Amino acid sequence: MKESPERQKLEAVLRSSGMVAGGFLGRDRRPVAEIIEADAAELGRLGRTASDLAARMRDITKQARGGLETPVRVGANLEARMIEAKGSLPCPWPHAGRYPKGMVIATRPDTGASVRWSELSLHLIEAHGFFQGRGSRYRLEPRDAVAVLF
Amino acid sequence: MLQALTILFSAAITGNIVLTKFLGMCPYLSVSRRIKTAAGLGWAVVFVVTGTAILNWLVYTYVLVPLQLEFLRFILFIIMIAAFVQLVEMVIERYSPVLYQNLGIFLPLITVNCAILGVSLFMVIREYTLAQTVAFGLGSGLGWMLAIVAMAGIREKLKPDRIPKGLQGPGITLIIVGLMALAFIGFTGVLGG
Amino acid sequence: MDTLLAIGVVSALAAALAAALTVAERFIADYGACTITVNDDRRFEVAGGGTLLESLSRNNLFIPSACGGRGTCAYCKVKVLEGAGPVLPTEEPYLDAAEREDGMRLSCQVKVRRDLRIRIPDELFNVRPFAASCVRIRELTRDIREFRLDLNDPAEIEYVPGQYIQLQAPAYDGNEEVYRAYSISSDPAEPDAIELVIRLVPGGICTTWCFEHLHEKDPVSFNGPYGEFRLSETDAPMILVAGGSGMAPIKCILHHMQNRGCRRDAIYFFGANRVDELFYLDRMRQFEKDLAHFTFVPVVARPEAGASWNGETGLVTEALERSLTDASKHEGYLCGSPGLIAAAREVLTKLGMPEEKIYYDAFA
Fold first, then answer.
1. Which residue is closest to C77 within chain A, CA to CA?
2. pLDDT value at residue B192
3. Could you say which residues from 8 to 27 on chain A have a Cβ atom under 8 Å away from some Cβ of chain C?
């Protein structure tokens, strides 16, 4: 499929490992638009939208940050811990803004299942509906996210 | 003089190169999103089509015909067009970097805009004189620009509207082209062809 | 015969056109020599046509860049007072309205076509690329290591204690080359070497390279120094707060205070999650002996079972609140994650510290 120059540049940036190790697309050879649509469809089947999920993740992130790297209890059955690293990353989409590095790890104490995300991967979900390609280190499977966070 | 003007008018309106002859569709569909960029590309095409028509006429009349090498016109016209577009690229990059960036890949793609090669080949088929070639080139270019700016205007106007998902982008654009072409058919009677 | 003629004509015409284009390029794309005036003070004569970033770097003036001029990181912002032309579409997404009004541009996208006048932070004049060798790697905790780099070319570095450098992690394992910032933690009295305290970030490009691919005796490149975090010139008492690798610039500042015989009151709260995440304890105890009025307060959030810990517990911000009632005369020096800095700032302002007296090292 022929893509506009902006789309091609976006895909090139997402595939490169200049920002994060392995890039944002991992082993996935599908075009970005397809990845976004497939994940949106999956979320739809689970009865959620990307913005619901992102709002929940934001709330958990805020509470986890207060723990200053110690685990924090969020609600009845979730534990979250934020590990921050120095530095920030720009978003691969062309707009201003930098996202601090670091990771939130949310765990269900009963099942032991956990998901994790970074400030940037949260922004990608919230603003662009992008969960990252399969094989990417920070890909969040919509199924796992919904199971753990709701 | 009158004949040249008639040729110019018919090339721009009644025999519009993109709406009646369907040449130059590719950049027409891709760069017709914003009026400003469409106008910029339109002017570039006017300049290239007129310039290459003149140069190609000169090369054809004074080199190919005397040496009986008319069959080389396809190769040579394309070479001339490619060189000319390179020149235009350089000039635009120097004097309007914003336009250069906005056009992006579509500036060098002017080279393979079949409308430009089409004009040179029509000029040969119709055995135009130099004056007629200038009028024809200029008219075709202006017609192409008119069509793309009109298309951009329509698309900009349609922007807030909800177009069905499957038709967004190329789908609706082609429908618009079809409707515009239908409208232009109304002109065919004006000059008797 | 006909074929030869045909080939001849085509070749001749193509050659003539190529020649004409070359000549045209000489004239059209030749921007001549342009002068870049920096801070209304220094002047650089450069050949026009290149980007501002390249032209400056060829003259040994290094604007920070993390993406190599691709226009994706927005680190290379420079204030252009005149001569840059209109803002390009590739710059637009990265400049907000206020920046555009100010004349901020992405120097990797601005092409030098005529004389330019620009403004950059003065400290950038002192930034250089350095070639060094890693001479010692020491494990400080499970995921923090100290790297000592001996400088080769240039052989010495001049920096203000508290500043950082950008370390180059070369391409490896399919990853591209990247630059990452780390504060200098060594004694500034040793200008021929620097030490960095680096914490392994799971999946981090640079830290993974440092921990898995960098060995003693390997060559290392970096540039710097950068940063505005430093000791103030006053005599006010200081409260220092850091966690993890945030210790680095604090340690450098403490060395500096010792070298200068500084007698300022200073108390340093160092936060960690567990006892085995503390490090440099002996070094800090030594500072307590050598500096006139320095106190070191390590704070462990959750001492693990089996580790006998008699010091402060809980979050470092809690320990801060317990120890002080009034911080209105103090200055604050914070270094660590954005979360820690935000929490510490809140506590310090609550204790009366004026906002402008809180200095922090925020890489974000």
1. A96
2. 57
3. 13, 16-22
Q: Is residue B31 a contact partner of residue B41, using CB atoms and an 8 Å limit?
A: yes
Residue B145 has pLDDT above 90, yes or no: yes
H or E element in which residue C165 lies:
strand C164-169
Q: Please give the residue of chain C at the shortest CA–CA distance from A97.
A: C94
Partners for C (CB, 8 Å, 3+ pairs)?
Answer: A, B
B&C contacts, CB < 8 Å: 54
Q: Which CATH architecture has domain C238-361?
A: 3-Layer(aba) Sandwich (3.40)
Inform me whether the pLDDT recorded for B193 exceeds 60: no
- Name the CATH superfamily, with its identifier, for domain C33-124: Beta-grasp domain (3.10.20.30)
Other C-beta atoms closer than 10 Å to the C-beta of A77 total 12
| Number of folded domains that form chain A | 1
**Cα distance from B104 to chain A (closest Cα, Å)?**
8
pLDDT at residue A1, rounded to an integer: 44
Mean pLDDT of A79-85: 86
Cβ-Cβ contacts under 8 Å, C89 against chain B: 98, 101-102
In angstroms, the CA C9 to CA C229 distance is 70
What is the ipTM for the molecules in this complex? Answer: 0.76
pTM of the model: 0.72
Question: According to DSSP H, which parts of chain C are helical?
Answer: 2-28, 52-58, 97-102, 205-212, 247-260, 281-290, 316-323, 338-350
For chain C, give every residue range classified as CATH 2.40.30.10. 127-226
The label of the residue with tokens 């970074």 reads A118
- pLDDT value for C303: 87
Listed in order, the ranges of chain C carrying CATH 3.40.50.80 are 238-361
pLDDT in tens, B7-59: 998 889 888 888 888 898 888 888 888 898 889 889 989 999 999 999 999 99
Structural domain boundaries enclosing A77: 5-149
Number of Cβ within a 10 Å radius of residue C121: 14
Averaged pLDDT for residues B143-159:
92
CA separation for the pair C292, C302 (Å, rounded): 31
Selection from B26, B19, B3, B27 nearest residue B140 by Cα? B19
CB neighbours of C141 closer than 8 A, spacing ≥ 6? C276, C277, C278, C279
Q: Cβ A21–C204 below 8 Å, yes or no?
A: yes
Q: What is the CATH number of domain C127-226?
A: 2.40.30.10
Mean pLDDT, each 10-residue run in order, chain C (364 residues): 86 92 85 88 88 89 79 84 85 85 90 90 86 94 93 92 91 82 92 93 86 93 89 92 90 94 92 90 93 92 85 89 89 88 91 91 66
Q: Contact partners of B by the rule of 3+ C-beta pairs under 8 A?
A: A, C
Describe the strand order of the beta sheet including A114-117 as a list of residue ranges: A72-73, A79-90, A98-107, A114-117
Q: Which residues of C touch B67 (CB under 8 A)?
A: 5, 9
